[in-house]
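Checked the freezer inventory, then went back to the computational side. Two predictions to log before the end of the day. The first one is the construct we discussed on Monday; recording sequence and tokens without edits.
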Amino acid sequence: MTLRDQIRNFILENFILENPEDLADDESMLEKGIMDSTGVLELVAFLESTFEIKVEDEELIPQNLDSIVNVINYLEKKLALASRSEAVHPPHASPA
């Protein structure tokens, strides 16, 4: 399943949409009333648990989380940074 599919499915399963087929990937979910501030926190919890990332307070901005496209772009950057960080600092294996 693609990032888009995972994010879109989460939104469709957790938020009330009159016509789910009308949700365009680049539309503001806040402006359309699909998501409010509590919904943003639910989305953040989903992203953190599903993709094992930490969304920092300063990242809680519409440019990162307001539309499906913004979430995908944010997540791709965040995952790329995490993989680069692990390549530089691999997790330590515990001694057997």
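The second is the one RB wanted added to the comparison set:
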Amino acid sequence: MALNGTPLLLLIDDEPAQKRLISAIAARSGWRTIFASDASIARATLGTRDGMQLDAVLIDQWNPQIRPVEILAQIRAQRPSLPVLVLTSQNNVLDAVEAMRAGATDYLVKPIAPDRLLAALDATLDKCDNKTGELRPLSEKLSAPLAFNEIVGSAPQFLAALAIAAKAARARVPVLIEGESGVGKEVIAQAIHAASPRHRNRMIAVNCGAIPANLVESELFGHERGAFTGAFERQIGKFADADMGTIFLDEISEMPLETQVKLLRILQDGEVQPLGARIPTRVDVRVIAATNKVLEKEVAEGRFREDLYYRLNVMHVSVPPLRDRKSDIPALARHLLTRLSDQPGIRSLGITSEALSLLMQHDWPGNVRQLQNVLFRASVLCDGDALTPQDFPQIAAQIEMQHIEKVQPPARHGNGAHEGAGGITLFEDDGHIRQLADIEADVIRLAIGHYRGRMTEVARRLGIGRSTLYRKLSELGIDNAA
């Protein structure tokens, strides 16, 4: 806690009215608030005297220049245990969920309720005091380790992958898990650890792609005080933290080549050397690596060390994407809804067969993670006792757009001159040009379907800001639930 027992909050926001409101609310519980208007100022603040005394960080993600996930990675690298809250609008709930996956403690929805903010701040103090607080990242809440027989899936490809993973659990060798983003690689890694002789010790998960390149070695191997500018105190690395347990290196393909050399030494010799240390330290760590790329191809193109690839690829697990095991979607959806209902503010909900049929028609480019986020969003907004197709308008729109892209509609008036790209009709049947708002709505729907609901990409490709996109969705009556 900060000096004189006064807790200290860093608010990353550049809106004066919002800063005054939050600091006034926080002051009711005795919090002192300091401010940073952008990411660079926030990073500088973390290295100051005030930064070392911080008890919590609150990031307002309304501004497109403020990227919570990027700031989170840097905060986690410098202060792994510092609670971070994200403030979002109702339209950006899924972005907040993604921030929580990157390590945020909790998120708050605007307009902010004073009691909710105060409860969240008080809970961060409980967290700092090692008490049992309710605020944990959503990824932690929904990813409690599952045994192999608890993992949902009966498709042959998926069962084959689980069988290999189960065999790997009993061995002491490294494991490489390959599969698209969101297929459940970390769930399988947790199951491997839970079924291994090391299950009584910790499994430390590290996302190599979320750590800035200049901080990855410090994060993994640790550093001594004064090893580099900003190293105010000694830091234990993730490998030393995982001694006698397991370390899960997600997105291993994003690890810089120079760091790969040090990882190879650990696998070969069992020694880790923190930055600034003269003598290496022996560690006994089982390595499980995961990637959403084909690592063999990365080796062929010179982006990944061949010797490290063979060291990691002793046991290889290939997890199929959700589109290749759509028969698992009904069981997965019910399982995820059960887990979601354990979270504060989420009711226990059923799901109709019609809704399940709709979900099975989608290709799910984001795999199980996307399915979980879609169910989360639908559960928050649902007023009934069971989810129906009406609770998934965005999925229905994307399926419709996929059909439009696959089947070009016949041209009107014989020459197709009355249609634009993607089958968008420019003229009415009577020959008059359609209203601009109607054409604009069709273009936005087409973009949403083409970019699979990734609203940041939709806005970028349309040449407008996200806030403008959401305003247009509201004005044109297009539902953007995802």
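For RB: The chain has three domains: 3-137, 148-320, 324-476. The first helix runs from residue 16 to 27. Let me know if you want it refolded.
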